[in-house]
UniProtKB/TrEMBL annotation:
Lineage of origin: Eukaryota, Metazoa, Chordata, Craniata, Vertebrata
Protein name: Synaptic vesicle membrane protein VAT-1 homolog-like
Alphabetical list of Pfam families matching this protein: ADH_N, ADH_zinc_N_2
Gene encoding the protein: VAT1L
Basic and acidic residues bias: start-end ranges: 348-359
Organism, as annotated: Puma concolor (Mountain lion)
CDD domains: MDR3
Length: 359
C-alpha cells in the first residue's frame, strides 16, 4: 500500500481496534465545518499491524504493532495513513489500549503542559471527568507534585473515578460555589469540553494568570442543545468575553483542537514528540488508558448511544475482531463487553430526558 493522503508516503495497517470519540458523534450529526461528502468512513484513531509500506518509508517494518491518527476512515479493517501520523505501540500495551491512547492522552498533555504550562502546586478543573480525556488529565496531573484536580461527572460515576480526583462534584450541581468553598481564589486551569454557559462559569473560577481552555462542545450532541441553532443560541446568551476584562483580571482564554493541529496546521512533528513523552510515561507505569468497553463494528450504533448518554467511564473501543454481543432484552443501547445490562442510574435523571442520538 503506497501513498497516503496528499501524496505523502503511507503506512498500511491491518486494523485491530478503533477509538470512538465525541468528535465522531459530531460528524454523525453534521455539527462540524466542511465534513467530507458521503459516503464516508468515520473514525480518527486506530491501532493494528503494519501490512504494507510506502517505497521510502523508514523506521517501520511489516508486522510492527502501531497506533495512528487518521483523517477519517479509521473504522475499517484496513487503513492507509501518512507515516508521520503513525507511532509504534509499547510492548506491554494492548491493541485496545493503543486505540484509547493517542487522542485522549495527546489532547490532555497538550492542554496541560503546552498551553496551560501546568506546574507543581497548581489546581485544575476538568469537566466530564469520567470520560477518556478526563481520566487522561487526572493521570497526567498525578505526575506533577501537589496538583489539585477538581472534576465534574454524573453521580453514578463517582464511585469508580473518585480515586483519580482530589475533589469530585455532580455535573448538575453548582460546581462554581463548591470549588470556591474549597479554594476561595479559584483554580489555575479550567478544561472545558461542554461550552455554553460553562464558559462564563469557568472564566469566573480562574485565578489571576489562570488559563481557560475550550477543547470541545459535547453538549452539542447530547441533547442538552437540541440542534445547531439552539447551540448557537446558548452561546449568544453567554456573557461575551471582554478583552479589557481579561486584561484587568490577568486571565487567559484559549482553544485547542488536536485534529486541526495535526491535519490542517502541520504540527505532526510536535505531536510525535508528545507521543514519545507519553509512551515513556506509560512504560514507567505512570499512565494507563482507561478502556470502558469493547464493541464490534456492527455495534457502532449502540456504542455511539452509550457515549452520547455519557454512560462511559474511559474510552469506548471498536474491536474489529470482536463478534457482536447478543443484546439484552428491552435494552439495545447499554450492553457492555460482557453483555451485561447497565444498572439504571437513579439521580442521573438528565440522561433519561435526553433525545436518543440514533433515531
Amino acid at each position: 500500500m503506497g501513498q497516503g493522503k496528499e501524496g505523502q508516503e503511507g503506512n498500511g495497517r491491518k486494523v485491530r481496534s478503533c477509538g470512538l470519540n465525541f468528535i465522531d458523534l459530531m460528524v454523525r450529526q453534521g455539527n462540524i465545518d466542511n465534513p467530507p461528502k458521503t459516503p464516508l468512513v468515520p473514525g480518527f484513531e486506530c491501532s493494528g499491524i503494519v501490512e504494507a509500506l510506502g517505497d521510502s518509508v523508514k523506521g517501520y517494518e511489516i508486522g510492527d504493532r502501531v497506533m495512528a491518527f487518521v483523517n477519517y476512515n479509521a473504522w475499517a479493517e484496513v487503513v492507509c495513513t501518512p507515516v508521520e501520523f503513525v507511532y509504534k505501540i509499547p510492548d506491554d500495551m494492548s491493541f485496545s489500549e493503543a486505540a484509547a491512547f493517542p487522542m485522549n492522552f495527546v489532547t490532555a498533555y497538550m492542554m496541560l503542559f503546552e498551553v496551560a504550562n501546568l506546574r507543581e502546586g497548581m489546581s485544575v478543573l476538568v469537566h466530564s471527568a469520567g470520560g477518556g480525556v478526563g481520566q487522561a488529565v487526572a493521570q497526567l496531573c498525578s505526575t506533577v507534585p501537589n496538583v489539585t484536580v477538581f472534576g465534574t461527572a454524573s453521580t453514578f460515576k463517582h464511585e469508580a473515578i473518585k480515586g483519580s480526583m482530589t475533589h469530585l462534584f455532580d455535573r448538575n450541581a453548582d460546581y462554581v460555589q463548591e470549588v470556591k468553598r474549597i479554594s476561595a481564589e479559584g483554580v489555575d486551569i479550567v478544561l472545558d469540553c461542554l461550552c455554553g454557559d460553562n464558559t462564563g462559569k469557568g472564566l469566573s473560577l480562574l485565578k489571576p494568570l489562570g488559563t481557560y481552555i475550550l477543547y470541545g462542545s459535547s453538549n452539542m450532541v447530547t441533547g442538552e442543545t437540541k440542534s445547531f441553532f439552539s447551540f448557537a443560541k446558548s452561546w449568544w446568551q453567554v456573557e461575551k468575553v471582554n478583552p479589557i476584562k481579561l486584561y484587568e483580571e490577568n486571565k487567559v482564554i484559549a482553544g485547542f483542537s488536536l485534529l486541526n493541529l495535526l491535519f490542517k496546521q502541520g504540527r505532526a512533528g510536535l505531536i510525535r514528540g508528545v507521543v514519545d513523552k507519553l509512551t515513556e510515561l506509560y512504560n514507567q507505569k505512570k499512565i494507563k488508558p482507561v478502556v470502558d468497553s469493547l464493541w464490534a463494528l456492527e455495534e457502532v450504533k449502540e456504542a455511539m448511544q452509550r457515549i452520547h448518554d455519557r454512560g462511559n467511564i474511559g474510552k469506548l473501543i471498536l474491536d474489529v475482531e470482536k463478534t457482536p454481543t447478543p443484546l439484552m432484552a428491552n435494552d439495545s443501547t447499554e450492553t457492555s463487553e460482557a453483555g451485561e445490562e447497565e444498572e439504571d442510574h437513579e439521580g442521573d435523571s438528565e440522561n433519561k430526558e435526553r433525545m436518543p442520538f440514533i433515531q
